[in-house]
Amino acid sequence: MSEERVEYDSDKQLIRVYRTFSKPKTLVPKKELRRWGKVIEQGEDDQGRPVDRVRYVFDNEETARYNHQSVAFNGLETYVDSDGSEQPVDDDPDFSVREDFGISGDE
Fold first, then answer.
1. Most exposed: 13, 41, 60, 71, by fewest CB within 10 Å?
2. Distance (Å, whole) CA 45 – CA 35
3. E-assigned strands of the chain?
4. pTM for the whole thing?
5. What is the spatial distance between Cα 7 and Cα 25, in angstroms, rounded to a whole number?
6. What is the DSSP letter of 44?
7. pLDDT (tens digit per residue) in 12-32
8. CB 63, CB 24: distance < 8 Å
9. Cβ neighbour number for residue 28 with a 10 Å cutoff
10. CA-CA-CA-CA torsion sign (92, 84, 77, 65)
């Protein structure tokens, strides 16, 4: 099961799309992402309200990270709701590339 709730912030010209999925590793449908990407391109939503940014807010960090690349590719922001506060999802990996390839710091 998935849920979507959309809110508009007129002061920031921002649409927040709140997404909840029953399984953490569930992707937002491509069609849905393209729809919001077009809203950004056009600069307004289907109600004619000015839109500068669209922000996906996930209730689960794993889901947010899982969707981050596809959301960003469509020109949208990825956030996670952390204890009632929205936090951006960054591109920083959670691992050390050098260590993953067997390169130690003393070489």
1. 41
2. 10
3. 2-9, 14-21, 53-58, 77-82, 85-88
4. 0.81
5. 24
6. B
7. 999 999 999 999 899 999 999
8. yes
9. 23
10. positive
Q: Rg for the chain (alpha carbons), in Å?
A: 16
CA angle 59/100/65 to nearest 5° reads 10
* Cα(5)–Cα(40) distance, integer angstroms: 18
DSSP secondary structure string, 48-71? --B-SEEEEEESSHHHHHHHHHHH
d(CA 13, CA 43): 9
- In the numeric block, which tokens belong to residue 33? 């992402």
Task: Tell me the pLDDT band of 84, cut-offs 50, 70 and 90.
Answer: confident
Residue identified by tokens 């020109």 is 75
